[in-house]
């Protein structure tokens, strides 16, 4: 046995038995480093026989291969250990992940939109900041009407204001579009109201507008009836009562049979069997003239209702402010 052979056997046994990458590195330095016996002997190669020099070089190459092989194996074992320590037991029950949901008012609004889209209507969204022309004048609201007062309306300037209803969208739509028109206008509106259980300075409204040839009040009642049956159930009935609005003539208010007690009488419907829902009417010919629509050729109807009111009635909520207080105890119920 030569010196190189003994050295290789000793180094091989140590390298193969290395328990970690750190131990392997120490062995590499010890057996192959600049101050290792093998390196020092190779520095004297000029004084050695050719066969001995060749054997030393073969020993060095063999040890380098042993170190590489041992390093790959230790790295593989280390990776497997990491995977084993971080493995997920798929049989264990998972932790519940909290999920968000749409606000109740958004749910109601989308449901309303879906009902009208199913009837062939379009959804038109206008601006919340409008001029007095589209909010009042074009809708034939008299200059002395209480709704034009600064006590009732948020004015940004003498002629610019936050819309008090979504009816300005009807004006914009008729100005931009040639009839026939079948559209709803949902959105936020603003009025100077003191917040309480039934009033808010900002709330959601949706209005419908139909302009076509040959439209009658029977079309209005049929549309409202279909809408409420889709919203509150197929057993609902609708009635109309005469009323007054500046931009419709004739004007009506519509009620729906109570969906809580099925028209038998309860506190929600004040034991009448009917729930008041909103206002409607025949579009006043003067409104048509204001937007360049010929009332002799075209006729139509419009109606509007509050989205919060629908949500309150459907779910029995007693206070309008619950929608805006972001109390999760309330919102998580819907």
Explain the overall architecture.
This protein has about 325 residues and is α+β, with helices and mostly antiparallel strands. It folds into two domains: about 5-85, no CATH class; about 105-330, BirA Bifunctional Protein, domain 2, CATH 3.30.930. It is built from eleven helices and nine strands. The chain has a seven-stranded mixed beta sheet with strand order 1-4-5-9-8-7-6, with helices on both faces. The longest helix has about 35 residues, at about 50-85. It is elongated.
- The CATH superfamily of the largest domain is Bira Bifunctional Protein, Domain 2
- The figure for the number of domains is 2
The CATH C-level class name of the largest domain: Alpha Beta
* Sheet with the most strands: spatial strand order: 1-4-5-9-8-7-6
Which outline best applies? Answer: elongated
Q: What's the CATH topology label of the largest domain? A: BirA Bifunctional Protein, domain 2
CATH architecture of the largest domain: 2-Layer Sandwich
**Ends apart, CA distance between termini:** 87 Å
Order of helices and strands: HHHHHEEHEHEEHEEEHEHH
Report on the biggest sheet. Answer: 7 strands, mixed
The total beta strand count reads 9
The computed structural class is alpha+beta
Q: Please state the average pLDDT score.
A: 88
Helix content, binned percent: 25-40%
Beta-strand level of the residues, as a percent range?
15-25%
- Our count of helices gives 11
If you compute it from the alpha carbons, what radius of gyration comes out, rounded to the nearest whole angstrom?
Answer: 42 Å
Pick out the low-confidence regions. none
């Amino acid at each position: 046995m030569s010196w190189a052979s003994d050295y290789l056997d000793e180094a091989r046994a140590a390298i193969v038995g290395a328990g970690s990458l750190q131990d392997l590195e120490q062995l590499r330095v010890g057996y192959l480093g600049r101050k290792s016996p093998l390196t020092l002997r190779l520095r004297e190669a000029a004084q050695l026989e050719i066969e001995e020099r060749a054997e030393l070089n073969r020993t060095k190459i063999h040890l380098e291969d042993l170190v590489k092989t041992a390093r790959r194996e230790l790295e593989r074992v280390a990776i497997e250990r990491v995977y084993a320590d971080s493995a997920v037991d798929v049989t264990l029950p998972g932790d519940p992940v909290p999920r968000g949901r749409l606000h109740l008012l958004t749910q109601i609004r989308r449901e309303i939109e879906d009902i009208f889209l199913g009837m062939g209507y379009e959804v038109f969204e206008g601006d919340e900041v409008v001029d007095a022309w589209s909010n009042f004048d074009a809708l034939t609201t008299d200059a002395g009407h209480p709704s034009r007062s600064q006590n009732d309306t948020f004015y940004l300037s003498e002629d610019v204001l936050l819309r008090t209803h979504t009816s300005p969208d009807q004006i914009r739509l008729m100005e931009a579009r040639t009839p026939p028109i079948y559209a709803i206008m949902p959105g936020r509106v603003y009025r100077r109201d003191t917040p309480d259980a039934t009033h808010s300075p900002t709330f959601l409204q949706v209005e419908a507008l139909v302009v076509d040839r040959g439209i009658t009040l029977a079309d209005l009642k049929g549309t409202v009836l279909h809408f409420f049956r889709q919203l509150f159930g197929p057993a609902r009935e609708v009635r109309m009562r005469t009323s007054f609005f500046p931009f419709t003539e004739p004007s009506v208010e519509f009620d729906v049979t109570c969906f809580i007690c099925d028209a038998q009488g309860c506190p929600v419907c004040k034991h009448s069997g009917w729930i008041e829902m909103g206002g409607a009417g025949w579009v006043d010919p003067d409104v048509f003239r204001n937007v360049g629509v010929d009332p002799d050729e075209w006729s139509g109807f419009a109606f509007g209702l509050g989205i919060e009111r629908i949500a309150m009635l459907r779910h029995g909520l007693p206070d309008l402010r619950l929608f805006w207080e972001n109390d999760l105890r309330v919102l998580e119920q819907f």
